[in-house]
Each structure stands twice: as structure tokens, then as C-alpha cells.
Amino acid sequence: MADIAKLLSPRNVAVIGAAPKGQGLRGRILEILTAHPYAGSIYPVSRSNGEVQGLKAYPTIGAVPGPVDLAVLIIPAEFVVDELRRCGEAGVGAVIVLSSGFAEEPGEAGAKKQAEIKAIAAEYGMAIMGPNSEGFANLPLALCPTFSPAVAPGNLSLLPKMPLGGRRVSVIAQSGGMGFGFYDRGRPKELGFNHIVTTGNEACLEVLDYADHLIDDPGTDVLLMLVEDIKTGSKFSTVAEKALRAGKPIILSKIGQSDAGARAAASHTAALAGSYASFSAMAHHYGIVEGRDLEHMVDLAQGFLAAGPHLPAGRRVGICTASGGGGGWIADACAAAGLEVPELDAATRREIDKIIPSYGTSQNPVDGTAQAIRSAGYAGLAGRVAPSPMVDGIIVVMSGRAGEHVAHEREALIKLRQETKKPIFMWSYTLPVSLTLETLAEAGYPLFTNMHNATGTMAAMADYRERRERFLAAPAVARVAAPVHEHASEMLSKSRGALTEYEARRVLAAYGIGHTTGQYLAKTVEQAAEAAAAIGGPVAMKVQSPDILHKTEAGGVALGITEARVREAFATIIERAQEYAPDAKIDGVLVQPMAEKGREVILGINTDPLFGPMLMVGLGGIHVEVLKDVALGPVPLSKPAALALIDQLKGRALLDAQRGAPAADVDALAELMVKLSRFAADHAEAIAEIDLNPVFVHPKGQGVTIADALIIQHGHG
To answer: What is this structure's pTM?
Structure first.
């Protein structure tokens, strides 16, 4: 791969198409570049000017003295391809193509020019960003090859004097404006930014290439990503896992969740948005924190930056406030975020009672009243709550208007932060002044003005810690023995596009998924009668045809059939199937024992075009048909991951003991999910879909029963 380091951390920069101030974007690029103390050389390249904005200009890239690490192209699209070749011949290591007019445009001409960019990059080994990019910023280097006004000279320096938590965040966005929007929202909060990268059309380097590079960058502790299109599903998994293992949270928003959003993504990037449900499942599996909007994502970032490795061990929050109403309000927000606000232990309450008036309360929320804040300060109150074994994190309700009061507490706040490993958030119910922001950032406290963002960030941090610990501790999903794999592959190769239940059960049984005991394929009435007699008791009878996937709709299912009714049922099933699909090939009728009832669950495999096979679990009946209560996960799944997937179901409690009914065998269900996921992963090249529906989960210790099974191979239909 081309050298991204040469792109993002160049020793010198050439601006091709540079123009004097006031001449649109071509002038603004050089103006912003030279406004910051970048230590490297900057070379304007202009055919019509010998000097541009006080710098000597060169007529061509080849005329620039010495090697050039990075060239910035701000020229019309029709000249880009030829100029890139000149850059390649001049030994330029990396290029940003800011110009638009490529694959984002309708028609074939733009796409053709973009394909030429990719070919040139490969020919010369150049790292190329764009086209249609807004450039990037390397804040520690004070390098800003962009026309974004967010980094234009202003009141704020590029980096704060004391970044929040002493740590930095990098931004990668497929939307140029939104990428620098994160910086514009985050810098006033004293967040330290490392890189801001806008990828444009991604002719060469895609968003995941930059993420992979920045995860290795010691200056990046958190990643903010805005994504419209993911090109390579396997690369997403690799990068996401790399970030999770490194303990560098990815906070990501994916455009295309709605139909309108998907249309916007497609029209803006000339790329399909993809399946959001599968994406969300992948994000959940790899601990990616999904963000809603700019403010929410910046707030998430400041929480993670401030906490560093000291994430909340659980979901219990201690609340400190001088306002009873504010404390109650933030407590409600905690509940909405899935956090707990437990009553504090007696020892902690005794310490709190020493500093609050009699009309305050120490139970939680801790209402110290204004009197305690004046005497002990926010640090004094929070410092007495933090040691409690009943809380995992603290939220302080405060007024950010009182900048001088907060500054007066500076040393106490710093000392508390050094002594306390639990995250402490500040929520200001008033708009904060800059002195408050600067003081709290220096002391290591994130300040929130949106209470739901404060509680949501605390919850997201607890979730991230839990998911990361579970992922790192999960054992590898055991592979099946080679003969088992080969046997299943052979059976699949001999089958048609859609496998009947009789065929599917035999393939799945090779992996220990269900069994074939008591399963008879009857081709005649007599065979059906003999099968029923062998089974004894009522039987289920189902038409078997690769052309009839939905047997019930065809009238091809009969349940609870006694021996006396088997012949009649056989004839009826065949007759209805032939009426439903006259040209269908009918293999016969499956005769099997009636499944013992239990909690009804659906399991399935669906192959996502980007991420490959995904396992789905859902509660059966109305829950899946009407409420769509399902959860997805990538295959193969470990048992802890399978249990976590079950826990995502909104109706999860229905699997617990209910109204005298014993708890369901969730453990057996998870083991079945592991086996099914292993099977799907091993045979991904053959299998498009699998349905196990319904699966009956029996009382704890009694296992599960697969009542029906369907396998559809690629190419069916």
C-alpha cells in the first residue's frame, strides 16, 4: 500500500493551482496553509504568477527544488489526470485531489477520470486522497491543507494548552464539511485533535485505510468517523478488531439508516449505502460506539478522552448537585440511558452528612444545596461520593456560569481527578463560560450541556468496557474435524439450490445441529403409514419440494396426525401442493414426531453482500412477525457472544421464569447458535440463507428442538 504517513505527515507541500488571496478556494488553500506555524516548506505552483502570497512560485511541479512529499491539487477536473502523471514523474509521494467533477457526477465521464486516478496511483505508488476531498489537518504539525473555514485563522489556536485528559481524537469523514464540523464543535470544549481527514470519493484510499493507519498512531486515542459507504466488509472487521484490541474507541455514525438517508448517501458518493441492520450488528460486535449527530459524537469523544483507561466498571451512577430539581432531572436521564442511581452505603453517607446542611440529602442523588458547594465546593462533594462501593461513575450537576468559582477550585479538582479512577462528568444547566471550560479541561473533567448526552456517554463507556472485556476473553470458536466439514460440503454439492427440510436436517446434523432420528421421507401412502407406526403417537407431516419453500402457505403441513388419519393427510398434502405449484418437483412427505412445545425462537443465517453471513436470533410468533424483535451477529460466534446477542432482544425476559413457568434453556440455545454460526462460516461460499423456524427452547436443562429447517444455496432462483 502507498505510504499514508507521507500523505498525512509530509516534510513539505506543493500547492498546484495556488492563487493570490481573494481568488476563491485556490487562494484560500494557500492562505490557510501559511497562516499556521507549519515547519515544512510550502511551494506554490502557478503558471501565471512568479510569486503567490509572498512565496516564490514555480511554473510546474517538476520545477520545484528537491523532492516533494505532498502535492495539493486545486485545479479543474479535466486537468487532474495529466497533472497527476507529472507528479508521479517528479517523484511526488502523495497527492490530495480537492477538485470535484468525478464519480460523484452523473454520467460515465467523471467515473472514467476517477478510474484513471486509481491507475496512476498504482503505477507510481502514490498515496492519493480524494478526489472531491476537503483535505485534512494534522494539528500537532500545524499543517492544514484544506479550504475549510473551521481551521482558518481565528480566536482559537489549533491545539488547546491542556487537551482534555491529555489525550487526542482523530476524525475521519467521507463528508468534507462534516469532518471539519467535528473540529468546530469540539475545539471550544478544549478537545485535543490529532488529525482531521476527509476522504472524498476514495478513488484509492478508503476510510478504513486511514483508520488502520491512525490506530497505530500514538497521538490518536479515540476515533470519530462519519461513514456513508463501506467498500470492503472484511477490512471493516479487521480494522474494528484492531481498534478494540488496542483500546482505542471508534465513535461512528453511518449515513443511510433511513430510506431517505440511503438515497442521500448514494447520490452524494456515487456508492450504495448498504444494509444498516448488518452494519449495526457488526458495530455492536466490535465495540464500535454509534453516534447520532455532531454534538452527541463530540460529547462521546470527550467522555472517552477524559476517562482514558478508567472506564466505569458498571452502570451505577452517583449524582452530586446543589439543585434538587437538577439532581432529579439527571436521575431520570440516567434511568432513560439504562443507568442505575443506587442509594449510597451508610459509611459514605456519614461522610457526606458532615458537610451538607440538615435540609440536604446524602442518599443519591446527593443534594448538597448551594451551602455545601460554597463551603466544600464541587470537588469536596464529589470527593466524598467517589469512594462509595455503590457507584461506578459520578455526574456533578453544576452551573458553568460561575467561572471564577470553578477556577478557585482548580487545585482541588486536579487532586480529586488524580486520586479517583472512576469517571467524573460535569453537567452544566447553564451555558458555561470559557474560564469554566478551560479550568475543567485542565483538571481532566468533561463538561456537558446536554444532560442526555452526559448520561448516554456514561452508559456508552460502560457498554464499551463490557464488550471489549467479553471480546478479549472469548475463546476461539472451535473448528469441526476435517471429515465433518468434507461430509457436509459433499452433501451440499449434491443438493439443488434449495434444500428441503429432510435434506437440510441431514446436512446440519453433521455439525451436531439437530438430529435425523425419527425423520422419514415417505414417497407413498404406505411408506407414510409405516413411518407413523414406527414413530408411534401423533406425527407431523410436511410436503418436501425444493420448489415449495413456504410449506404452510401451500397447505403442505399437517400436525398432530394419528395413525388412522395418516393416509388421508398424505393424499391431502400432495393434492394441495400440486394445486399450489403445478410444476413443482415433489420429493415426498416428511413424517416426524411432533415437537415438544417450549418458548418459540427463530434462528437464521442471512448473507449480507458486504459483511457475509450474519446470524439472526429472534423470539418467535408475534415478536418476530410484528415487533421485529431480532438481533444480528457476524459468524462464527463464541458462546459469550451468542449469549450477549440473546440479551439484546427486547423480549429477553420472556425466556426467564414467568408466571410459574420455569426459565428456558438459554444455555442450550446459545450452544445451538454457536454450532449454526460455525456451519455458516465454514460453508459461506455455498450458503445464502438458513431458517430454523421455529426452534422450541425447553425448560432449563432440557435443551432445544428444531421443528423446521430450510437451507438455500447461492444461485437459487
So the answer is: 0.91
